[in-house]
Design goal:
The chain is mainly β and about 120 residues long. It has no helices and 11 strands. The chain has strands at about 1-5, 10-15, 20-25, 30-40, 45-50, 55-60, 65-70, 75-80, 90-100, 105-110, 115-120. The strands form 2 sheets. Strands 2, 4, 5, 6, 9, 10 and 11 form a 7-stranded mixed beta sheet that branches. Strands 1-3-8-7 form a 4-stranded antiparallel beta sheet, with no helix packed on it. It is elongated and about 50 Å long.
Length: about 120
């Protein structure tokens, strides 16, 4: 099985920065797409940023120019650098990795435990 461990959340003032990390471990054969989602109180979970195996990235409009997603396949990690944070960025952030596990091969999405990001005004 696969486990994802997140870190890097916290409380920051508006305009500040945080860097979230998410590292996978377990019966990993290969890593595919990775992404970061967030869920604010009373809201549905939304995709914030994603990165493909080839390194192509996509961002929700609200974070373009402020957030950067990256990956390190050797470390089995995905990162989210968040700059110029705004109060509306406040949410629980979840990482997601699409993982192919060791034989018998099976591909599935795995989720981190979530990390709270709170931005004060």
């Amino acid at each position: 099985q696969v486990q994802l461990v997140e870190s890097g959340g916290g409380l920051v003032q508006a305009g500040g920065s945080l860097r979230l990390s998410c590292t996978a471990s377990g019966s990993i054969f290969s890593l595919n797409a990775m992404g970061w989602y967030r869920q604010a109180p009373g809201k549905q979970r939304e995709l914030v940023a994603s990165i493909t195996r080839g390194g192509s990235t996509n961002y929700v409009d609200a974070v373009k120019g402020r957030f950067t997603i990256s990956r390190d396949n050797a470390k089995k990690s995905v990162y989210l650098q968040m700059n110029s944070l705004k109060p509306e960025d406040t949410a629980v952030y979840y990482c997601n990795q699409r993982v192919t596990t060791t034989p018998p091969l099976k591909t599935a999405d795995y989720w981190g435990q979530g990390t709270q990001v709170t931005v004060s005004s």
